[in-house]
What does this fold into?
Amino acid sequence: MSNPDEKAKGRLTTRTVAMPSDTNPAGDIFGGWVVSQMDIAAGICAGQRAQSRVVTVALDGMSFIRPVKVGDILGVYTCVESVGRTSMNILVECWVRRGRIGQREKVTEGMFKFVAINDEGKATPIPREEDLPDYVNNNFHDH
Ligand SMILES: CC(C)(COP(=O)(O)OP(=O)(O)OC[C@H]1O[C@@H](n2cnc3c(N)ncnc32)[C@H](O)[C@@H]1OP(=O)(O)O)[C@@H](O)C(=O)NCCC(=O)NCCS
It folds into this structure.
């Protein structure tokens, strides 16, 4: 059972329903599917921060805390943890609503590192936060 006082870190970036086609042989949701959902959401967050194409370069501290079940609503929360010259760390947490309406629980967390790239696929500098459009800054300040 998750701590009822614990809150998701970051901003709700994607929501989806875990389907029967996403299960492993034991009938629980396949871990690779969850990581894929996390990578998609982290890429949205990183792309907004970088205002460019981004690629995943590393994944640290991935924890599978509880299983995801068919029918759970999976909400993926993201926040920009730190920004380097061309890379950034995106903290990602997945929370489920069991069977669409039940208890809300944190199921995974991990730190995804993305690099901003240009049209040639080369690393490119990330803009300063103060140079971002308002809608991006608002996104990053509402959590
Ligand atoms: C991302 C990529 C363009 C970087 O190229 P590169 O020649 O390593 O570029 P750099 O050496 O200038 O490094 C760029 C930044 O990425 C960081 N970085 C690169 N590889 C990294 C790794 N494996 N782990 C952690 N950080 C890494 C560097 O520290 C640097 O950060 P900074 O600019 O904030 O200081 C190249 O590694 C790449 O294309 N990788 C494949 C990405 C991909 O296809 N992902 C999807 C996999 S299916």
